[in-house]
Every structure is written in C-alpha cells, then in structure tokens.
Amino acid sequence: MSTEFRFCPACATPLALIGQEEDGGFTQRLRCPACGFTHWNNPTPVLAAIVEMDGQILLARNAAWPSKMFGLITGFMEAGETPEEGIRREIAEETSLAVDTLELVGVHDFQRMNQIIITYHARAHGQVRLSPELVEYKLMPPDKVRCWRAGTGLALAQWLRQQGHEPVFMEDLRQKPAVGPTEGAG
Fold first, then answer.
1. Single pTM value for the model
2. Distance between CA atoms of 105 and 158, rounded to whole angstroms?
C-alpha cells in the first residue's frame, strides 16, 4: 500500500485501510471513512527511450545516481499527451536531440516503484546538451551495453535481442570476476 496518501484530498479526513467488495472481490485500500473517497494506488505511466545516434546507444547519468550508473532517457507522461508525444518531449528536454523515428519496444511493469514503463526505440540526431538533472552521458555500441533485471533493463534486453544481441545483465557480472566494462543501463 502506498504511504504517500495519508489524508483524503476531498475532505482532509485521515485515510484508513478499509476492506470493501469490488468487482474483483473483497479488497483493502486506503479509503476515507467520512466521504468514501478511495485511493486506488494505480501505477504511474513512465516513458523510456533507447536513444540511438549513429548506431550507438545514448545512456545518461542522473545527478543523484552513483558515478558508474547510466540509464535510458526516462520521464513521466503528462496529462493531454500521447506516449509518443511524451517520449519525444522527454528526449528533447533531457538531451536537446530531435527524434527521426520512434518505435514501440514494449510495456513492462516496475512494481517496486508502482510504475508501468512504456519503452520506445528512438533514432535521433543533433548535438547532445543535457538537462540540469543529468550530469553526463556516453554513447555505446549496443553489444557493450549492460542491462539490469527490472524496469527499463528488461526493455533494453528485449530490444537488444530483437537486434540480434544477447543482453548481458549487471547482476550476472557481479557474481563472476568482472571482464570489461560493467557500467549499466536502465
């Protein structure tokens, strides 16, 4: 259960974990005992892009991440935009790149963060200029990119397989002596 909602947004009464019959059966959710508001705690849609420039994959490092952790370009979908419009906006905002083509890779759940990730492969061009939330980027050949076993890492692995590359997962590299770069994506 989400702990972010503590009070009813309609009447400010403290929410309580209350069970109730729903279409799928008896379910406990945070509900308002005064006005009946239900906090559904639905997953948040997140957009991700495997950005390709001149045959290489662009990975970026968020300022809050460890120095060796790089990932895909991601962001939240905003009200009033389609997923395609949203990922084009995110790529432009975070990298200043223009998208030439966009193809859906897949949709993956990221339950730990209560998110649904919609991932696209974007071919882009331009000069990379990072937004303030990103501190550095790298361009890597697809066969050198490392994945992780959740969220965008699963989407990247799916895309790599579609391109004829067997993905390498960072978790697997940690179990053996490291050979080559272990920077990852996702």
1. 0.82
2. 8
